[in-house]
Amino acid sequence: MSGPTPTPWRVGRAGESIWIEGPKESTAKARLPGNRGIVCDFRLFGDEALDAETEANFALIVECVNGGGR
């Protein structure tokens, strides 16, 4: 069994992209400034309501990983 997921995670958003980034231990390849790793990266739909829902879902994922339910 693997160990706990490294935290903290956070949501990033720029242009048509939204992503979840975690500490460098959370991924082996993609890196962001400050030694943070991209955990997942999505392209937004361009529809305001859908994009807001996507961002809200990402926020829930991040809350859970960062200990919201622990």
Verbal overview:
It is a single chain. With 70 residues, this protein is an alpha+beta fold. Helices cover 30% and strands 31% of the residues. A four-stranded antiparallel β-sheet has the order 1-2-4-3, with helices on one face. β3 and β4 form a beta hairpin. The protein is globular and about 40 Å long.
Structural topology:
Blueprint: E1 10-14, E2 17-23, E3 31-32, E4 36-43, H1 48-68
Strand order of the largest sheet: 1-2-4-3
Rg calc: 13 Å
Count of alpha and pi helical runs: 1
Instruction: Estimate the helix proportion, in percent.
Output: 25-40%
Mean pLDDT: 80
Distance between the termini: 18 Å
The shape is globular
- How many β-strand runs? 4
Residues in β-strands, percent: 25-35%
Key words describing this protein structure:
31% strand; 4 strands; alpha+beta
Write a compact overview of the structure shown.
The protein has 70 residues and is α+β, with helices and mostly antiparallel strands. It contains one helix and four strands.
